[in-house]
Amino acid sequence: MSTPLRACLVLACLLPLAAACRPPVRGTVITVAGSTSVLPFVEYLAAEYMHLFPDVGVNVQGGGSSAGIQAVLTGAADLGMSSRPLGAAEAAELGALPIAWDAIAIIVHHTNPVTTLTLDQVRAVFSGTAGDWADVGGRQGRVTVVTREQGSGTRGAFEEMVMRGLDTTERALVQDSNGAVREIVAADPAAIGYLSLGLVDDRVRALTLDGRPPTVEAVLTGRYELVRPFLFVLGSSPRPEVEAFVEFVLGEQAQALLAQEGLIPAAAVRGGR
Amino acid sequence: MRDERPVEMLLGLVALSTTTALVLIAVFIFIEGVPVIARVGPAQFLLGRRWAPDAGSFGIFNMLAGTVWVTVGALCLGVPLGLACAIFLSEVAPRPLARMLKPALELLAAIPSVVYGFMGVVVLVPLVRTTLGGPGFSVLAASAVLAVMILPTITSITYDSLRAVPDSYREGSLALGAGRWQTIAMVLMPAARPGILAGVILGTGRALGETMAVLMVAGNALRAPTSPLDPVRTLTANIALEMGYAQGEHRQALLATGLVLFVVIMAANSVALALSSRRAGEGG
Q1: B-chain residues near A174 (CB < 8 A)
Q2: Which of A49, B168, B198, B202 could form a disulfide with B276 if both were Cys (CB 3.0 to 4.6 A apart)?
Q3: What is the largest CA-CA distance in chain A?
Q4: pLDDT band at A269, cuts 50/70/90?
């Protein structure tokens, strides 16, 4: 075997080792995993936290509410993020703590003439009984319903609060993240979907429901009712570093940041629902 | 003389470990997937039209139908294109041009599927929506993306099969007065048929198994499509879509979906393998 070739082989064998050594581990690392609805907000707070405490690493991952809860159960993650309440079996072993409240907005394309619907109309559109925009006072044309996948916390909250036992139409497009739903609704003039109020941007329009606008103020006064908690899921005896991070997230500064991002602070609704 | 046995053993071990991985994956999918199929009933699982994991309904028929729609669509678009490419490269194009084009075509296989999916979402889906109607996320979009993805497989295997036909066939045919197209259609294609079939079946396997690109452009609606413009959910997309949040029986049902997929793709690949070994037998 020629020398350069041998050198290459040796290098190739060493590469994975080098990769494994790469993340500079200084101090402690906190792993957070779970709901993609909660993810962007916690990522934002984690960056803030690491800026304040450079020797702590906060590693935030997605995967979904159930995956996050599972990760805390198995010890793979220190903290879980969930946008659905814990199941009975899960609640026996884990604790859940609301870090903020999130409203669900019903969104349409920004050129859609429909700006307000009643909850009954939303239910009719999503169940497929109103399949044309003309049925709910819009321009004629088939509605493209966009929903989330089975098991998603956002979908669970939407079905519980809006559908109330009715099935979502099987024609509905199904996407596995808030971002994908927003992309489709932003591009398709006939689309309707739903996502976290905090993730609404000016490419889509959030509908007024039963005459109640989807704003943080309306949520705080209890007028806009599609609201659900964002939870941190903790094991029975979290490490002190983890507790410190939770305390930071519930603190005044972090809560103000969350409010800026469109969420409703944990304390504002506490006990209210 | 140096002792080569350690190296041989090492290589043997490495080779064995890949096969072991395959066996372990198969065993895992069977152990996790079979109980759900047994509980729901194989007929109900395969032919049931309602998929509502929250309500305990696990019927994958619509997704099976979706997989068939998308795969057949991809073959309808990809096979003629692939065969045409291979015939052109092998029989028509001047040698230097073919030597440049073939690697370029094979590079298509090196593009990650998520890039195909992204191109599909950004270019193809809006195009379908504005020119043909419907939501754009559709069988057609998924099939078109898959057709491009299976093109390298079909083209390169067909090309190799055509090249493997002895020149005496070409010369004999031409000497008998057949034209070039007559030679290609009536002599070379039949001679290369087992190889071409193997290529098509390997392409089918790839189309059946592709996940990311399909997930991004198919729309993933639960209803079985009735036209190429309808959104569709394939077996692979169903698993990828719901894996993140699935727990308990739902998770097992997704693994059972994987089991069905595994069996279908294994069958397709076995047929391809049998066909290509027949080709080898004929050549000898």
Answers
A1: 219-222, 233, 241
A2: B198
A3: 79
A4: low
